[in-house]
Amino acid sequence: MKAAVALISVVSAFAGRECEADTSTRQFTVADDIEMSQVQGGPVISPDGKYFCLITQRGVLDKNIPEYSLWVWSTDEVARFARDPLVRMPAPILLARVNNYKDGPMNGMRVRWLDDSSGIAYVALNAAGNFQLFETDLKTRTTQTLSSEDRNVTGFDVQGRNYVYTVTSPEIVAGPAAETQPQSADITGQSLFQLLFPLRRDPESLRFFPYSEVWATIQGKRWRVENARSHKPVHVYSSASAYSEEASFSLSPDGRSLAVIHPVASAPQYWDRYAAPTGYENTRGLYRFGTAPEMQPLDGVREQVLKICSYQLLDLSSGLFSPLANAPTGRLFGWHSYFDAPRWSADGQALLLSNSFLLLDVANRKEQEEHVRHPCVAVFDLRTRELSCVLPLIAGLDKHRFGVEDARFDQRDRHRIIIHFTAGGWLPSGKLSAVYRLNARGDWTEETGGEDPVLEAIPVEVIVQQDLNHPPVLIAIDKATKTARTLWDPNPQFRDRDWGEASIITWKDKTAWEYTADLVKPPGFAAGKRYPLVIQTHGHIAQAFLASGVTTTGFAARELAAAGILVVQMDWNGQHFGEAQEGDDQVEGFSSLVTKLDHEGLIAPDKVGLVGWSRSVYHTYAALAADRPRLAAASVIEGVNYGYWEYMNSVDESSHARDSQSNATARMIGAAPVGAGLQLWFKHSPIFNLDRVSAPLLMLETGKEAVLADWEPYAALYSLNKPVDLILLPSGSHVQTNPRQRLASQGTTVDWFRFWLQSFEDPDPAKTEQYRRWEQLCDMQVTQNPNQPAFCVRTKTH
């Protein structure tokens, strides 16, 4: 197999010291945001505790590519540094760097230490946009290529020197052949988007494609796993969720079996009793496999993918599946978890199932009701066939939700479970790990002061330290003295930067829903001054640095704050998600926020902007149609609008299923948009009420598919002569990572709100045409709303 010279840059020397910090207080820009290094997850400790690695990612604007770097430290060197203030800061080893595909997704590298700690196995993007599997030896820094460069690896696991990995099937990625369509064809029941836009082939969509071929390398022998009966390739679901870096399968210690998440051939009817998480009761089925238009059928998989899945065993020699517990995985009922993968005990006699419901065949009614309510991090004993709950999962829109980053057995004692929680937006403040032990009664209870045994043996604790106002740095803490020292700053250029102050605020609206949000004040904030306000949606940041917002797509919190605009990054009201009242609830939340900040003297209530992305695009249209709060400008980026056209273009072969997008839209509005049902659409659909809009709207659409999906509101506003600007961005990922695409979406967001809220135009000559369009929209806005204050720039003729 050819060496991947173009992909991997292995550095044999220690990385040099970072450049001196830039203490400049210049304004934070979108370019700064793009090139800021973000830490992917946290430190990953080697099995022997002698090393740990960390992944960072950033955008490189001059090359227009995301860049992923794999760093390694010696724990002994770090321990001496933490213990002795005279010891020089140890520099990390740059083990690998990947930076040659323009649309690399978030979390573009996934790593696993080898069992003997001699190296790291990882997948990384190559120039063709395929994830490829590699192994790098820590001492020699030599890299071995383990998969073909023309096949896309969707997941992998390693036990010793045995590997199992999955690749996207050639039939899937090939797409339709050119000009093979006959002169006439029956397309009844087919997806409109699939007909107009054949399979989109990019790393993000392929990485989460539900089914992939299984390949195994066991004791040096490599083969594609095939079904012994049909002699066809075996396909498994290779990635548990878009939030997880782990594959949703696990190789047994003896190399014979694969624990997987796989469709159930015939799901029992009583499984419908299992609940969805808080706030997702009406949308749980949307998280089942096969709902995305780019998911092409393969060997009858189309009929399988709509079924509920469970944890099962795949025999690698025969290619046959066998069930484990008679209960489904929580993922397909809407239970988001950062980590859904199974894990084996060292003796191969038990499996940790990190997102599984429990059995319902229990006599105790209260216990049965508890089993229905939520999935668990659970343990399945292969000898007794018993399934027990270690930790109930809490997800959805619950205020106490959390995410699991990793869960595994203590390899010396399978009656101990170590769970690490993610420090992402879902985790409440508190501990990041816990240890559970099976007691004499057969229950799992948390150990007081329990610690991961690998970490417990190390005299130093290494953490990624960050908060709303401080970018991530690596901190080394000596356990004996509790002395903490900064080990590594991946962004020294921002040291001493004045970010403005961000803080968490809470309030209740008239529905008694309590909101949590991040309030970002501009640098040099002056008490008593009333600032323009931009509301960013889709959740708030709990324990991480707030730069863009919850996404890099069109959000620009710190950039707007640096320009003198107050920014609020807020969560949403989950009382009626998926129901007709959802939009009204969010409008009430926006309005109550504006009222709160106005009463506190922080904002100018006539200078308010709103940004919607993904699902909150619908919420933004709801606010525009209700004209509450009174907005001075709004922006939407690639999301759902629950309009008539969206209903019609999602009517395809899956529309007969309860969980189709068209049926979800009908449930949201209250009826299908035909006959008497149209009256409910006139009442509940914002798109039927755009004549009430009084604010200018920016529509940023990533690719022609997104333009088509959002064409109805654009056409309505345009035909009504309302100020609307539709901008087509190059196709890319939903959560944008391509630097120039981010520069366009985030930069245009900043320009748009500064234009409408601050009467500001960037003097950059490249933006002259942009401002010429907007000045004409300003004239239109002033003419149509003579009694409404305007802060935009009019054409020179006025």
Task: Compute the average pLDDT.
Answer: 85
CATH topology grouping of the domain at 498-643 and 685-784: Rossmann fold
Radius of gyration: 27 Å
Strand order of the largest sheet: 29-30-32-31-33-34-35-36
Residues in β-strands, percent = 25-35%
What does the largest sheet look like?
A: 8 strands, mixed
Q: CATH homologous superfamily of the domain at 498-643 and 685-784, by name?
A: Alpha/Beta hydrolase fold, catalytic domain
- The count of DSSP E runs of length 2 or more, i.e. the number of strands, is 36
Q: Report the principal-axis shape.
A: globular
> What is the count of helical runs?
18
State the low-pLDDT regions, or none: 1-24, 172-179, 201-209, 240-244, 285-306, 653-658
Distance between the amino and carboxyl termini: 68 Å
Q: Helical content, roughly?
A: 10-25%
Backbone structural class: alpha+beta
Class of the domain at 498-643 and 685-784, according to the CATH hierarchy? Alpha Beta
Which architecture of the domain at 498-643 and 685-784 would the CATH scheme give at its second level? 3-Layer(aba) Sandwich
Describe the structure.
The protein contains 18 helices and 36 strands. The protein is of the alpha+beta class. The protein has a domain at 498-643 and 685-784: Rossmann fold, CATH 3.40.50. Helix 10 packs across helix 11. The N and C termini lie far apart (68 Å). The model is unreliable at 1-24, 172-179, 201-209, 240-244, 285-306 and 653-658 (pLDDT under 50).
For this entry, give a set of tags.
5-stranded antiparallel beta sheet; 798 residues; 18 helices; 36 strands; Rossmann fold; alpha+beta
